[in-house]
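Entries read chain and fold; for instance:
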Amino acid sequence: MPGADGSILITSILITGARAPVALHLARLLDGVGHRVVLADTPARPIAAASRACARYYRLPPPRFEPRAYADTVEALIRAEGIGLVIPTCEEVFHLALAWRGRTMPARLFAPDIELLAQVHNKHSFIRLAEQLGLAVPETTLLNSRDDLEAVRGRSRDLVFKPVWSRFASHVLLRPPPDFLDAITPSPAMPWVAQRFLEGEEISIYAVAGEGRLKALALYRSLYRAGKGAGIFFERVEDDAARNLVERIVAGTSWTGQISFDLMREPGGRVLPLECNPRAVSGLHFFRDPARFTDAALGDGAEVAPDVTAPQTVRLAMWIYGLPAALRSRALARFRKAMREGEELLDWPGDSAPVRAQWPALAEIVGMALRQRISLQAASTRDIEWNGPA
């Protein structure tokens, strides 16, 4: 937190979403400048809880299923630990914003209010927002009914269909045959969008902003993914048009907090927005200088640029997802090259425990997946997902 002279005051900070590698990374950055970092989440043994950067770990009720108990527990731990700032990293940001709206919390939430969070998370209203800010956008149609679906069925081979509220590219239909749409049942409570399919290179963005001013920015692309969704091997890219797009959205919304985007760079160089995730994503791993990052993100320091150039990866995820993909595509040489060149993003000097902690954390997710008969990805976020206003 900035002091009166713009310096960073040492305080206790709560980071939620401790299951995520980005939460671990953020804890290490803040601990590196002397902050006391408390972590919280619903799993019993998340990877970040094993870090020496974690002063204490709190296990929380699942916010998706027990929102009142979740809010009560978060408020109690904030008071007990003297927390001055709460930084969400995953979709619990929506549940926390709702808690902040409904009560007087004794700490600041590093995120906008729930109305703005919901607007950018919604895959249709985000595109309309970008359009209102004067940005070029792909044709995107809201589907609230079977009639809406029938109106675009004939063009299905030129479109991408996805739920308005979703993550990790779950349920996405990419240029499907018309009869594949029979499986979709859009409704006002569970709407979908049909978005024009764009040719080009997908760019992912991680950014931090303060009152509409960009404080940190990393652009990257994912060379390997866990299925169709989350990246597990990523390398940096640069693109002035993408930066301009982010700056305009951040300024136009007076954004404070973390924000992330998926964009498409067309062959001619034009960059169009696809969707927005108002939370941390893997681009955070390209920042490893605690003082410069913290001064920019939480203080009055100038915007910080990434200081990591090598590709970043989670090797365990590469063995689970990347190797089977390489075998299917007969691209083992490319896989071996990636494993040689990619740096393990969980590695950190003097803090090796989180690498070992992957195994019990994974076992907990596998157990959830087996009990619920869902995928590993679905199990990893089942308890914190937010699928729009109730």
